Amino acid sequence: MANTNQSVRVAVIQAAPVLMDLNATIGKSVKLIREAGKKGANIVVFPEAFIPAYPRGLSFGTVIGSRTEDGRKDWYRYWENSISVPGEATEILGEAAREAGVYLVMGVIERDSENSGGTLYCSVIFIGPDGLLLGKHRKLKPTAAERIVWGEGDGSTLPVFDTPYGKIGALICWENYMPLARAAMYAQGVQLYITPTADARESWQSTIRHIAMEGRCFVLSCNQYVTKDMYPEDLACYDDLKSAPEVMCNGGSAIVGPLGEYISEPVWGKEDIIIADLDMKQIAYSQFDFDPVGHYARPDVFKLLVNNEKQESTLWQK
Predict the structure, then answer these.
(1) Does the N-terminal or the C-terminal CB of the chain have fewer CB atoms within 10 Å?
(2) Is the pTM of this model over 0.70?
(3) Contacts of 98 (CB under 8 A, 6+ apart)
(4) 139 is catalytic
(5) pLDDT 10s digits, 45-78
(6) For residues 147-183, b (16+ Cβ closer than 10 Å) or e, as one string?
(7) Catalytic pick from 48, 110, 175, 214?
(8) What superfamily would CATH give domain 7-287?
(9) Is 173 one of the annotated active-site residues of the chain?
């Protein structure tokens, strides 16, 4: 599909879910989608793990070599409030996207609905303005203690989608430090590179600006703003949070142009909807002197191989 629009209005949602509450978080999501639609957005982006929560500060009762009963209770609560893709939640979100007339990109915690149902994935879902699920991306490598909670995605969910506003794709948080994962996005011609994240450090800003310059693309970085008092106090392992700071995640959502300059400066310390009009001609302007998969690619020297086959369980074969 050719890019038929030289301008696209995007909305980056910096907000917190109603932590560990699927129904309330979907309700909040629908309101935010509608609000972004009323502001004229064509594409609406939510943070990593917006549904039902990024479990910052929680151990789920786990230390190396042992688990606790209370931790299993919190794990089950997290699992119970996660979603199947596709499923009832994606249908509700799809209807909201259809009513608002937007492309929706949202971070979710996804239950494995293909095998046992027991594994969770940190995923991004893509929904079109017709309300239909376009596809998903599962995080390839959970970082550090995230490995306790989430499984690993595979190369079958590394999509870039062609839209009237340009090609959109996403890598989640520290996947963006994986050079070959970024290269896989660039090779598919990504123009609107979306980075849902949980990283609110200043160093993350250097990352997204580098990606924009390296990929000659727009980067939409989306994080949550979360305070400790948003956590439900009836968590079995709530004591994990006793020494946590009052502001658990300070945001830092931003939009960067293809020459590495901010289009929307980072927003800190509050929930917000960041609206920006992106001039898609800037991508071609930026590629005049650098095109990572064009005249700078050197395919005679370098070659990227991506295994995009779905990895199936081999425990039972007919």
Answers:
(1) C
(2) yes
(3) 129, 130, 131
(4) yes
(5) 999 999 999 999 999 999 999 999 999 999 999 9
(6) ebbbbebebebbbbbebebbbbbbbbbbbbeeeebbb
(7) 48
(8) Carbon-nitrogen hydrolase (3.60.110.10)
(9) yes
